[in-house]
Design goal:
The complex is a heterodimer. By secondary structure, chain A is mainly α. Chain A is built from 14 helices and two strands. In chain A, helix 4 (about 55-75) runs antiparallel to helix 5 (about 80-100), helix 12 (about 250-255) packs parallel to helix 14 and helix 13 (about 260-280) crosses helix 14 (about 290-305). Chain B folds into two domains: about 1-85 and about 180-260, Rossmann fold; about 95-175, no CATH class. Chains A and B meet through helix 7, helix 8 and helix 9 of A and helix 2, helix 3, helix 4 and helix 6 of B.
Chain lengths: ~325, ~260
């Protein structure tokens, strides 16, 4: 009886008792969710275009952030370093297409998936070789990202919003909206979707697979850079950051592997759910529930919508 | 579209051989396709007909032989380059973009004709928007022509097979090809669908002026449509000529009916 009360009544009593705390928790969850969504977006982009689950997305994020900070440490001005990092991500996309994807055309998906494992270890090695293995601090100030916080007096208390979180949310929203439109409405977007559906048919109408893959991996690289900057700013830039990318898995399960809106909504549900769960329900389980709560939420959704919230149901006539 | 006048040779296949390891799919085959004609490739299963189309549009690269398109002999060509040179095709097992609508599938055929760069497209404004509208108009014309207005917005994966084949033809037409390769355009269709498809193929040939090479198993259809027929068996060409000539050819009769030993 006591447990039931703790599970189903007490948290809501607490929420009602301190609405400002609730708002604060939701905001923090929202920001976390936006960042999860951004990571998930990187996966979705590549999955849509090449049908590959890119295991290296997490390390691409670390690698991008590391390149940015590393270049700055070596004396390159912050904004030049940012542009150079974008260039590096483009070269990476070119290299992946040339060395990994092109030789593996028409191979089963699992082979391509394994190849992305290889890419992961390659990038870890390359990153350590170039910039060392020590954790670094993200150069937020040099990039003119705002710091400090805004305190809102509301709901009978204060809710404080970190300015960098606001910036992260805004940039993420712009990127997501831009990519969504791009995919849906333009020639290259249509070509991307065409490639995702059928490689041979795409080739026959004159779409160059090589070009599309470069575009997609580059886009995923840019997304990785943005995520790397903001995750890096929240903790530090180190290789352990790639674990965060695994949090994108429940987001993808929830949103559907092929849907950009799915990545966003999935990210927000996981982000907010996680924070609320941790804050209000965590103490019942002795804390630390954020490690598994995301997967639990995803599993619950899976029971009812196996294709994810926005995933394409595969309709095929037999 | 093409520089070649009527009756001139648009594409010639010269002594082409293709093998996969020990399997010889095509052995020393030569034939030509004249501008404006409907050229059929027939033969029993496994004769190498689809391999031949794959060679022509660059999916396969033959070990020996040459292919000249509009008088230009070309080295190994990639499929998207063949498309850029004006060769479009459909597939034996419909290869559409299943998650996309009919219109989007056909618009995908316009990919090569749309030139605006990534930048304008990303903004979806100005020149890119004007271009999108212009090509959309062209595609609506194809939709009218193929009488598929009712399914413009339907995801093609959910369409019946006969309609999917029609959408696939539409996508190939959107490329405004000089040479259209059709791989069994009527396979699995009922009589009525076949008659429709025949009509479309003839209209494409007459109205759009496209040269057509098609593979088909339905002999009645082939004999009605084709100007000239190539017959293949076990990777070799065994006959070449007008439908009447081919019909009377002894090796063709043997190939189709079997020889009494």
């Amino acid at each position: 009886m006591n447990l039931l009360y703790q599970l189903f009544v007490d948290p809501f009593v607490q929420m009602a008792g301190a609405p400002d705390l609730l708002a604060q928790t939701i905001w923090e969850g929202f920001v976390g969710g936006v960042l999860y969504a951004l990571i998930a977006l990187g996966f979705v982009l590549i999955f849509k275009a090449s049908g590959v689950f890119n295991f290296a997305q997490g390390i691409m994020m670390v690698f991008a952030a590391l390149t940015l900070v590393g270049l700055h440490e070596k004396g390159v001005p912050a904004y030049l370093a940012l542009i150079a990092t974008i260039g590096v991500m483009y070269l990476l996309a070119l290299g992946v297409e040339r060395v990994v994807l092109r030789p593996l055309v028409n191979q089963p998906d699992i082979i391509l998936f394994m190849a992305t494992f290889g890419l992961t270890y390659f990038l870890i090695g390359l990153g350590e070789l170039l910039f060392g293995g020590n954790p670094k601090t993200m150069i937020t100030q040099e990039l003119y990202l705002p710091s400090g916080s805004i305190d809102l007096k509301m709901l009978g208390g204060t809710v404080s919003l970190q300015k960098i979180d606001i910036a992260a949310a805004l940039i993420a929203l712009v990127m997501v909206a831009g990519l969504g439109l791009f995919f849906q409405k333009t020639r290259i977007g249509r070509a991307l979707r065409a490639v995702a559906d059928d490689h041979q048919a795409a080739l026959s109408v004159g779409i160059s697979l090589n070009q599309i893959w470069v575009v997609v991996w580059f886009a995923a690289g840019i997304v990785a850079l943005a995520t790397g900057v903001f995750w890096g700013a929240r903790s530090e830039v180190s290789f352990s950051l790639q674990i965060v990318a695994l949090k994108a898995l429940p987001v993808l399960i929830l949103g559907g592997l092929t849907s950009i809106p799915g990545a966003i909504v999935g990210g927000l549900i996981i982000g907010i759910g996680e924070k609320l769960g941790e804050f209000y329900w965590g103490p019942i389980f002795g804390g630390g529930i954020d490690a598994w709560l995301a997967y639990f939420i995803a599993l619950a959704f899976l029971l009812f919508r196996p294709q994810g919230l926005f995933g394409e149901r595969i309709i095929e006539r037999i | 579209m093409s520089d070649a006048g009527p009756g001139e040779i648009l594409l010639s296949v010269e002594e082409v051989s293709l093998s996969f390891g020990g399997v010889k799919a095509i052995r020393d085959v030569s034939f030509d396709i004249k501008k404006g004609e409907i050229r059929a490739i027939i033969g029993p299963n496994g004769a190498g007909k689809t391999s031949m189309l794959n060679v022509i549009n660059g999916f396969y690269h033959p070990q020996r032989g040459r292919i000249a398109f509009r008088g230009e002999t070309r080295p190994a060509m990639k499929p998207h380059e063949a498309a850029a040179h004006g060769i479009a095709r459909t597939f034996q097992n419909v290869a559409l973009f299943k998650g996309m609508s009919t219109l989007d599938n056909i618009m995908a055929g316009r990919t090569l004709r749309m030139k605006r760069g990534l930048f304008w497209q990303a903004l979806r404004h100005g020149p890119a928007l004007a271009e999108e509208i212009e090509h959309r108009r062209f595609c609506e014309g194809i939709v009218d022509f193929l009488e598929i207005e009712a399914i413009r917005k339907t995801a093609v994966g959910s369409l019946p097979y006969g309609l999917q084949k029609r959408v696939e033809l539409g996508r190939a037409l959107a490329m405004e090809p000089d040479l259209l390769l059709l791989d069994e355009p009527m396979a699995g269709m009922n009589l009525e669908e076949k008659e429709d498809m025949c009509r479309f193929i003839l209209d494409v040939n007459h109205q759009f002026g496209a040269t057509i090479a098609l593979i088909e198993h339905d002999m009645g259809v082939v004999m009605d449509l084709a100007d000239r027929v190539v017959v293949m068996e076990y990777g070799r060409k065994i006959a070449d000529g007008t439908p009447d000539e081919v019909k009377r050819d002894k090796s063709v009769i043997d190939a189709y009916l079997g020889v009494a030993h």
